């Protein structure tokens, strides 16, 4: 059985005095345990809405969402979220930010510290434990955000364009770091991106969404062996996947522009 299941999900926004928007239309999706699933699609197709539903920050107009067979009703620490914008507590140090989740679970302080130190080392930020977010670069802040999300030991990690605001070099470093952490921790990940290279490099499966109202147009298993890294980007298999996804996305971008 898959870990996450979305069945016939539709979301319709009806803002007062404005036209109603169908953001998602009959979306069904399943994410297997310990796999890395990526969603790509044109701007406005409902990717963030889909992730917010799984996070429990939004409710579907119709359809059901379950995690391990249980209905998702509201946010929970079993679903960790990393956004594009930096969402660290500015008044807390790196270590305190990472310890925040475990401390809410009333774990002993020494246990929270051990969890934080292990994750700070996994995201390669040793030496910055006492720094405040304002003293860090964008890439470093996203490493803290990743460590903070992992500190709750979530069942699934939800990532909404987490590297979207980073320059391409930092983005490459972050992708490799995420792959390394994922290889060792084997978390289930649902990841959103505009970047096709990123989708193929990271994903076990890439779901291409259609222009609004968003539907899953194609789900493509990425059968490129792991570990993957910079060499993967120039392999023939990678190029073939890229051509397929670019062509699917191109059709949708045109549909979106005409909508
Ligand atoms: N709270 C809301 N009220 C009204 N409309 C909304 C709301 N949230 C999202 N929408 C609309 O739903 C559609 C999907 O938005 P969403 O942010 O999920 O798209 P997206 O694919 O993540 O876009 P992008 O890639 O540009 O970030 C858009 O047309 C958006 O304007």
Provide structural commentary.
The protein is an alpha/beta fold. Helix content is 37%, strand content 23%. The chain is built from 7 helices and 10 strands. It has helices spanning 47-55, 94-104, 109-122, 138-151, 168-185, 196-202, 236-258; strands at 4-13, 21-31, 36-40, 62-67, 70-71, 79-82, 156-160, 188-192, 205-209, 216-221. The strands form 2 sheets. It has a 6-stranded mixed sheet with strand order 6-7-8-3-9-10, sandwiched between helices. A 4-stranded antiparallel sheet has the order 2-1-4-5, covered by helices on one side. Strand 4 (62-67) and strand 5 (70-71) form a beta hairpin. It is globular, with a radius of gyration of 19 Å. It starts with a strand and ends with a helix. The mean pLDDT is 93. Adenosine-5'-triphosphate (ATP) binds next to strand 2 and helix 1. Residues 13, 15, 21, 23, 41, 43-49, 212 line the site of adenosine-5'-triphosphate. Keywords: ATP-binding, Nucleotide-binding, Transport. InterPro entries: AAA+_ATPase, ABC_transporter-like_ATP-bd, ABC_transporter-like_CS, ABC_transporter_ATP-bind, P-loop_NTPase. This is NitT/TauT family transport system ATP-binding protein. One of its GO terms (molecular function) is ATP binding. Residues 4-236 form the ABC transporter domain.
